[in-house]
Amino acid sequence: MTAKVGLMDTFGRLNNYLRISLTEKCNLRCVYCMPEEGVPLLPHEKNLTREEILRVVKICARRGVNKVRFTGGEPLVRRDLVEICQDIHHVPGIKTIAMTTNGLTLSRKLGPLKEAGLSHLNISLDTFDEAKFMIMTRRKGLDRVLDAIRQSLVIGLPGRVKINCVVMRGVNDDEIPKFVDMTKTDPVEVRFIEFMPFDSNKWSRSKMMSFMEIMDRVESHVGCKIRLTNTKETAKIFQPPGHAGCIGFITSMSNHFCGTCNRLRLTSDGNLKNCLFGEDEVSLRDIMRSHPSDDAPVEAAIEEALAKKHFSHGGKASPEEIAQGKNRPMIRIGG
Q: Is residue 104 one of the residues assigned to a domain?
């Protein structure tokens, strides 16, 4: 029997990257991610078990998925995170295991996660100011996040440590130079992310700073034009002269990179999303529980979801149309 080809969508894009939300719980309440009133949490039995997560990864790995990223909510809230990481590390074909975290409790699990196979790490940090951190996250903890970043650099993961910064006009855009300075001596990749619309996060175009606006601030601070060093990654990466680290831009709103999209997203309750901004979802959880020993229906559902994948932004024509859609809040997607 001929082996099936990789997970290809109708636009010829090979989907070899699976982002897994391990939980919708979070110990922060970031304004761009979670509605002010919070989100109703699902009963425990509605979420995927460790065994079900591993089953999906194995099915996807057989079809060419080689990169997995843990997201949340906050993935470190999940008690069996290290064990899940260890499970996936041993799946044939998986080459990269990454995690996006707010860093609040990262220090305690850095060593065990590295031993379990974690290779890449993104840490969210939107401000260096304690008062502003309280405003943006609705919680305390800036010192713990900064300490987690320092420890991550010391422990030496295989991949470069990345800092995710969502830039919001009038909120933290004045700190862009401080983030650039972070790359002078530390070998980090600071990623400036355009503010994106999700359910109840009060997005508006006036709050969003575009890639080019942020770039102007960066170049003004470093005193020269900075050079694009890659064309294939999601982020546009630039190298300031003489800096140990680099600057990245996630330009989802102003200059999308959907043409090279290779991602599928699995929510904590087991729904597969083919686009961050798309409303289409299929429950792999329900299919797996109905077919505990047969992977064929699960694989068929994944293929069906891929067949519905739009070229860009879940079929939405503008950020305003995305904002008016019926998507989940970011906290319940996982990014």
A: yes
What pairs with residue 14 in β-bridges? 8
Distance CA 47, CA 22 (A): 9
Q: How far apart are CA 280 and CA 282, in angstroms?
A: 7
Helix axes of 81-89 and 50-62: crossing angle, nearest 10 degrees:
30
3-class DSSP state for residue 219?
helix
Kindly report the pTM of this predicted structure. Answer: 0.91
Tokens of 42: 């699902």
pLDDT tens digits, residue range 182-239?
999 999 999 999 887 655 556 566 788 898 999 999 999 999 888 777 766 778 899 9
Residue 91 lies in a domain: yes
Q: Which tokens hold the place of 249?
A: 């831009």
Distances (CA, A) of 25 to 79, 97, 153, 236, 302: 12, 21, 27, 30, 25
3-class SS at 57?
helix
CATH number for the domain harbouring residue 229: 3.20.20.70
> Tell me, what DSSP letter sits at residue 108?
G
Is residue 314 within 8 Å of residue 252, measured between CB atoms? no
Nearest to 168 by CA among 188, 192, 187, 150: 192
